[in-house]
Amino acid sequence: MSIAVTSVGSTHIPLLEAELLRWVGSGDSLLELACLDALFPPGKFLRPILCMESAKAVGGTADEVLAFAAGIECLHVASLVHDDIVDQDPVRRGRASTAEQFGLAEALVAGDGLSMAGIAALLSGGPAERVLHAARITIEALRHMCQGIMRETEIRGDLTCGVPTVLNVMRAKTAALTGAACQAGAILAGASPEQNQALRQYGEQLGMAFQIRDDLLPYTAEDQTTGKTATSDIANLQPTLPVLLAYEAADETDRDRLATVFHGGIETDPVTAHRDLLAMLTRTGALTKAAQMASSCAEQAHAALAGLPDSTRLVELATSAADRQR
Amino acid sequence: MSIAVTSVGSTHIPLLEAELLRWVGSGDSLLELACLDALFPPGKFLRPILCMESAKAVGGTADEVLAFAAGIECLHVASLVHDDIVDQDPVRRGRASTAEQFGLAEALVAGDGLSMAGIAALLSGGPAERVLHAARITIEALRHMCQGIMRETEIRGDLTCGVPTVLNVMRAKTAALTGAACQAGAILAGASPEQNQALRQYGEQLGMAFQIRDDLLPYTAEDQTTGKTATSDIANLQPTLPVLLAYEAADETDRDRLATVFHGGIETDPVTAHRDLLAMLTRTGALTKAAQMASSCAEQAHAALAGLPDSTRLVELATSAADRQR
């Protein structure tokens, strides 16, 4: 995924980095330092690139949505900073999470500061009506994200919550914002309602493909590739899509084993627990099923692009989202 | 203060409460429940009332800024929810804080959800140019608030940080948002630049008066009046204005005693520590000095209103801010 995003967005990345610095500051205070540490080195810039490519797909320019795109990245990273507090996750992108490095209180405030810097960027320029429309859609997505994060805390440790619940959490936590990033980019570039709705659909389906793949990474990639510990889902007791698919497909004996590994794993030996889990996910066909679901979402994303004037790059992004190895 | 705000804002309060429910929801999810618990029973509604009265002072109506005012209240309460996590404060408005009641992770997400509900309300209605202008000013104030909260974590336990530093933290944490509430109300009601700047000045000075008085409450009011424990400043090792004024005025012997009480207080006996501190703040004249500073800010707030068509209620609010007992 990263390679594809980088190749698609390569010309945009230096501009995005400069724009982020413009909104977050140069590190003159502890708040700015913590925000910069969370932002840099950056991730894949998936959301801002989606925003810029969506503007271009309807005849606009990346430049006219640059500040908005940077704002979306700030808001996304703010959610990661807070998410790592919620999950007590010490690692993010292969480095110490903000909470781990600066302390919990400081990370909380840094997340708030990044959020507000992001919103300032969203509201900063362009025709007032379009900016307001795009900002409202983005804020609505962030409200869904909060619902998703809260719901996730409720299903922690619950292997019986069901696949639809986990898909809803993905929609709220990930797909809402990728959808808004695309729709907002289109609105800012003056797209028709049909076009911006199509791009929202595209962004939501791409987000689902991306997140389903993300849940698969602990079972398909090495630690050093993802920058996350493969065992962190077990440590968090977070029921992910592949685990729930396995649970659904398993017979009673395997369900009991799955529950034992899932609940007791971290107390005994996380590496062994992870290996046992991987064997069960493979045996029940859960990994294959999840990969098929990601492909299906990517196909729907692709289909939503029909009728747009120039969507070559968006097609590439959808394809790589269902195929990511990191 | 509460009595005066209530009498000034009495007709607005039911409208504000209904508007808050409209933005936060009716409690269908854990997120909504936690947000509602933080919002209700409400505080003094100082900021939304300032917003509405400022609109009226320049010839507008409270009604046209109602959603914006409710948004500002959501954002203020969100900051309290997060602040209580940062300060590890189990009590807010005489009840368990959100973190104490729902858990740290849940309170963090509730604060984020309240923030986003608040921003959705800010952006919800009125002429686009005015809404954007008012929202930008409010977001800028919230960025200052984050700077202030972070700065506060840095000076924890530091009696030598100086009075100007603590005044800067107050400006960032409190006065920026009260100033923005007034200025935004005026902008939404179509005020001239001179008028909205005057109302910003008014709101900032009122915010300073209010906050200086807030810092004095542990030494002038009973626990049950403020809903906060009088000893929480000591427990937090937070150097407040009266403590720093005493430290500045004290001789070397008293400084050592102050440092001992301040640092060791909570380990030994918080009630005794608080009594010793109160005696020192009185002896050094710090309480009198702080009260004078609050009055001076209130006078400056009052002076900023010269030239506005109808500011009777704003005058009352400024007077009561410097005189609050709870």
Span between termini of chain A: 7 Å
Strand content of chain A: under 5%
Order of helices and strands of chain A: HHHHHEEHHHHHHHHHHHH
Q: CATH superfamily assignment of chain A?
A: Farnesyl Diphosphate Synthase
Q: How many E-type strands of chain A?
A: 2
Low-pLDDT parts of chain A are: none
CATH architecture of chain A: Orthogonal Bundle
The pLDDT mean of chain A sits at 89
Tell me what you see in this structure.
Chain A has 326 residues and is mainly α. The first copy, chain A, has a single domain (2-321), classed as Farnesyl Diphosphate Synthase (Orthogonal Bundle). Chain A has helices at 2-9, 13-24, 30-39, 46-57, 66-86, 98-102, 104-122, 128-154, 163-188, 193-220, 223-226, 232-236, 241-249, 252-268, 270-283, 286-304, 312-321; strands spanning 91-92, 95-96. The termini of chain A are close together. The model of chain A has no long low-confidence stretch (mean pLDDT 89). Chain A binds chain B through residues 29-31, 34, 79, 82, 85-86, 104-106, 108-113, 115-117, 119-120, 123-124, 128-129, 131-132, 135-136, 139-140, 142-143, 146-147, 149-151, 153-154, and chain B through 29-31, 34, 79, 82, 85-86, 104-106, 108-113, 115-117, 119-120, 123-124, 128-129, 131-132, 135-136, 139-140, 142-143, 146-147, 149-151, 153-154.
